[in-house]
Specification:
- By secondary structure, the chain is mainly alpha-helical.
- It has 16 helices and three strands.
- The longest helix has 30 residues.
- The chain starts with a helix and ends with a helix.
Length: 400
Amino acid sequence: MANKKSSLLSGVQRKFRHSDWKLLIPYFILLGIGILMVYSSSSYFAMSQFNNSEYFLIRQFIFSILSVLVILIGSTVTKRLYTSKRFIGISLLVIMLMLLYVLIKGIAVNGASAWIDLGLFSVQPSELLKIMMVLYLATFLSNNEDKFACIQRSKNTNVFKEIFKVGKKPVIVIAIFLFLVLIQPDMGGVIIIGAICVTMLLMSGLPFWMGLSAIAAVLAFYFAFIGLVKWQGGLPLVPAYMMDRFTAFLDPFEDVRNSSFQLVNSFYALARGGLFGVGIGESVQKTGYLPESYTDFIIPIMAEELGLFRVLAVLATFFYMIFRMYRISLSIKDSFGQLVCIGMSTLFLVQGTINVGGAVGILPLTGVTFPFVSYGGSSLIVSSVALAIVNNIYINDRLG
């Protein structure tokens, strides 16, 4: 028994030694910055609400320890777990039940019923869905790459009809899950999961012109939606709070006291920080002026306290991590591993871009956190799982 445990431990150590440290070092840097900035940005609110300025710091530190354990375990478990159709199928079924549950008894935050209360912490099913959707699509597409290649080479077939014939199952699955996330409503989750699916489908061997057509259709829909909001002032069946976010994005200073309150105070934080910041703990906007200062709007607080140069360094670290994930995808030998790395990279790229874009006013506010830096157990753990899976694929590829 002792020899078995020793052998297992040595196997884990051997695997982890082959990790991609160019990927993990940025993760640890962001994790450390996240702990510091969560404490700084949440201390005022924590003291006023819980009479303990370290309330969110302690919880974020615990989440960070758990995320490191997730990286260790997720990087060294057998790769067969991630490719198991049984594991993926059961996981998607559980997530579907969780999504149905939140519609009935979920915790409502900012108008969206998207969380399940587990006592010590809350779980957001749509976060788990991001990971499982990547694994599901990677498994399906890698198992059917020959069929897609045949469709692309064929000159005498209806391409759309043939693609739908092969891929109708994942199309239906994606549509069902996107609908369940949309009606929470969680627009940020819909955008991220939709972007992951589109990117992975484009990387699976579909004709390039179809990729350009899909991107053009998405952009056309987006601008048409924005145009209708601006022209009509609202749309039927769209919640008022969500419409307010689009209104704020289109004209931030039209309704400073209500719909644009968060965005305008985000601008104040960005402007007050200047190039070098006012110093750690010296933010004014976190003292009740900027709600969600330690979650959705942690980047503006960071800019206020640390300044533009340091925030750019943090963003450079984050986007280097994403770049590294894309580089790993190019070096992986099997198509499943390539597609998973592409899917996880897209997850981080879209989520980070939406968060920063919303904070600086170039994109609508969608309630999306900044990975590894914003406060939140679900987001941090799920992001760590995504990173661990990429590292696992890298390790297994190196070890053969």
